[in-house]
Each structure stands twice: as C-alpha cells, then as structure tokens.
Amino acid sequence: MEHNSDRCRSHCPINFVLETFGDKWTLLVIRDLMFHGKRHYGEFLASDEGISTNILADRLQRLERDGIIEKEVDPSHRSKVIYRLSPKGRDLLPVLLEITRWSGKYDSKSNAPKAFLTELQKDRRRLAARVLATLDEADDR
Amino acid sequence: MEHNSDRCRSHCPINFVLETFGDKWTLLVIRDLMFHGKRHYGEFLASDEGISTNILADRLQRLERDGIIEKEVDPSHRSKVIYRLSPKGRDLLPVLLEITRWSGKYDSKSNAPKAFLTELQKDRRRLAARVLATLDEADDR
DNA sequence: CGAAGTACTTGTAAAACGCAAGTACACAGA
DNA sequence: TCTGTGTACTTGCGTTTTACAAGTACTTCG
Questions:
Q1: Interface of A with B in 84-103 (CB under 8 A)
Q2: CATH 1.10.150.120 fits B1-86, yes or no
Q3: Interface ipTM
Q4: Best residue of B6, B8, B16 to probe chain A, by most A CBs closer than 10 Å
Q5: N or C: fewer beta carbons within 10 Å in chain B?
C-alpha cells in the first residue's frame, strides 16, 4: 500500500558508492585482486589496460581508506607490499560476477572463458564459493 | 585439469566494459531509468547528483550508440524525447541489484529502503521480476 | 659496496569535466 | 501570426583530473 510522489516509484532504491563503481581503475584493481591473483604494486601496473603509476597509488590509497583492501609489508621480502581484499572487498564478488555475465553476453571484447560463463549460469553459488576459496588459499600464508 | 601460467589462476575471467561500469554518470543514468522511472532529458538533469548538461548529452549518446538505451521523440509532445532501456540495458538489472545490496550493507550514505534490501536478500528473483514488470508497464503506452 | 628491484612521488602537458550562456524546435495563448 | 515558455541540446572557457616521463627512497642480492 504505497502512494509515492512522482519522484519515486513503487520501489525507489539506490544511492551509489560512486568512487568504487564509478571509476574505471578502481574496478580493474579489484578485478585483478579477485580473479587474477595479483597482490603486488608492480603486478597491477603490468595489467593490459595500462594504469599509470600515480593513478594506481591514488586508487590503492582510496581502497584502503574505504576498507576494501588491506595493506601489509611482505614479511619475507620487505621491499614488497602485499595488497589483499578485505571481507568487505570480497563481498564485491557478486557484483563482479554479474558484470562478467553481462559483459560475456553482450561485449565482443569480453575474454571470459566459456566454461566460466557456463558455470556462472548453471551454478553461481558454487562458482562464487570456489573463487573465494582460492582467495583464502592464496592469502593464508 | 588446468595448468595455467602464473598470469592466470584456475579461473581467469573478465574484461570489463569500462565505458559503462567505469563511469559515474553512465551508471547514474541507468539507475534513473531502471528504478526511478525517468524518461526525459530534464529529469536526468534534475537528479540530486547534479549532472552537467553537456555531460548528460554525451552519455546519452554513448548509451544509445552501445545499444543500452533507445531514443524516441514523444508522439504527444514532439519537443520531448523519450529515453528507454533496451533489452540489453534491462539486462543490467542484476548488476544494479548487486551494487544496491553491497551499498546498502556497507555504505552509510545508501538510501535504499529496508524493505527493498530485505526482499533482495529473501527473494531476489521476484524483486527483479517486479522491477522489470514496472518498466514494461511504464513503456507500453 | 654497487647494481638491481620495488613502491612510490613529482612535474608537466593533454584530456575530461563543471558551469554558464546560447541555439533550435515545438507548443500554447493573445 | 506573433510572443513567450518549455525542452533538448551545443558552445566556450576556466578548473580539475589524467597520462606520461622522470626522479626518489628503501630493500635485496651478489
């Protein structure tokens, strides 16, 4: 039983987190962390899309400030820094999966493997669980 | 049975559609179309976020070029233009819903209604169906 | 100790954006 | 028919952001 103003229909959600989703490089860094096992500054820098070093430094700082990633000096190699997704960051997986699905369906430039897209359609939960398990495995050491 | 290079773990998807997801204003326009029933240039312009008119014109043009929205002169008011989501555009709903979920969970500035978030968690399909039905209802005239 | 690796910082030119004003067409009333 | 208003843009320009190149600081390795 809703009688809304003309500014707002029967459902009226959403206020975006624009610094996260409205920025190209932020999403690419999260993608690299989530799917490509990247952890070091130089690895992000080496992505095909070619992020500039000053922009990367800025985005990593914002992501840490917003609690999406966590930063740690590599204990075994103290000139390196390890970046990891926090639980809040890992919880972005469903968003990335839906972007992957849409991208794979409509974008000819998508390079998502067919097996991945198929499993995404058939058993999304299992796929998500596997991705998260891989993250755990990589980070627990 | 996969043995990948170190550039690519056991799963290795994703190539983003960066012009769509990596841009703040593009996502906001899609949000307004999907959830707020907006159809006219002036309505997008009036969003709280305050998009500039030249940027709005640019984004609408890109969205139409990419087949995400469709443009039509309003038959009953020929100085007005109606913008609608295409099927490809409507298929972005799952992405927006996941963004809404994450945003509602972690962003204190999120203004998504609790009832919406609850239904999103409990019966995502029904919620999605309702949103799409509302779009159909609004566009079939 | 010197060279190479890693993570940044700084400077500068190019690009994108924000803001204000202006244009073009449709419509409604005098 | 003329005038004013509504709607959808376009244009110009100053500001901000980005891209590219170079430089700095700390660490590791031989």
A1: 88, 91-92, 94-103
A2: no
A3: 0.90
A4: B16
A5: N
